[in-house]
User: What shape does this take?
Amino acid sequence: MTSYEAAVAYLESIGVFGSQLGLARIEALLDKMGRPEKKYPCIHVTGTNGKGSTSAMLAAIARAAGLQTGLYTSPHLSDYPERIQVNGQAVDRAAFGAAVAAARAAADALVAGGMEQPTQFEILTAAGFWHFAAVKVDLAIIEVGLGGLLDSTNVITPLCSVITNVALEHADRCGGTLDGVVEHKGGIIKPGVPAATAAQGPALEALRAIARAKQAPFYCESEAWQVSGVSVSRQGTRFHYEGLGAKAWYEIRLVGRHQANNAALAVSVMRLVLPQFFVSGEQLENAVRQGLAEARWPGRMEAVPHHKDWWIDGAHNPHGAAGLRAALDELYPHQPVTFVLGILADKDRRGMLELLVRPEDKVIVVPVHSERAASPADIAREIQTVTPPVAVDSLADGLALAERETGIVCIAGSLYLIGEVRERLWLDKEPPTTV
Assistant: This one.
């Protein structure tokens, strides 16, 4: 048995190996562990944006249907156990230590036999698969880490392959072009296994071609289902869904028109999958309605309690920035925003800034605790606003400046930043008692 502290120390020690796409190590690791991922059915989820939110809604609907449900996601915002959840709760530290210990023992044996060290993500993926088998989940929702085709999670044969959308991110790791990104996202489509997507335009047609080549039934927005009547408020999003034998209004706590599309995708997938668990008719509809109402996904257009008109959002690419700006514009038409931004150096920050920031907005640029962080001063120089952007040396300084603003404040950018913000603003725990 490995303690939580020892598990984290081990994960951090192998973090230096970075992300290395390829399935040879994870296949060998899972073989050594007895192929735990084959002991329960899965749904596999990828996409440029929205895969975390969609995965959370899928898991919430499955729970509402009475299934013991696993959810594997990445990255975490505060600590590693967030990545491995059962029935909406992160595994406790003892269970996390045991899962990492099982993966580490297999990895150590393989390395002793001459194989290269599995990466941190491979160890976490194997640990998640192992834990879901140990607790005998009825269904696991598995979110891709990066891309899909060569991602460590792509060793499963799911009940449904889910692709939220496709935009040009991680192109350097996925072929260098949009076609390359589509190939990697579509790489999770398996022969004969239904695939569902909310992708649009050329990416949609490319995914359709991949599904056709693999003789996989293909379901997409605007054909298999339609979304209409979307309305957005601080409390969440309401929309009308029609498709796959259903016609209904739904409400979700997640904010933004893009979340209505993610929710409709989740509804469609569960209408395909849940009948295989003998959930149908009124029970299925009740599970969908309850699951959508209960689903949460921290750090995505998340309101900050006790700070009126403060939001945090992990928009870290142009597609995400466009969705965030659209949500802010819908909630606060024609009103300037004060942004607190922290962005990684390897992101398309010019594309993000053009879509997110307007001349009338104010911008405070803060550092991100990552070796991949961009300099706040460099980012500030790229922003064209009436009020010159301010680069500060710490998140604390940035939040202190934001506190002086009386209007809308949005803290956005890297998920590393969002995790730190949630800790500082006590969003990941009960507020401290004051006397």
Summary: Residues 170-174, 430-435 have pLDDT under 50 and may be disordered. The domain at 302-424 is CATH 3.90.190.20 (Protein-Tyrosine Phosphatase; Chain A).
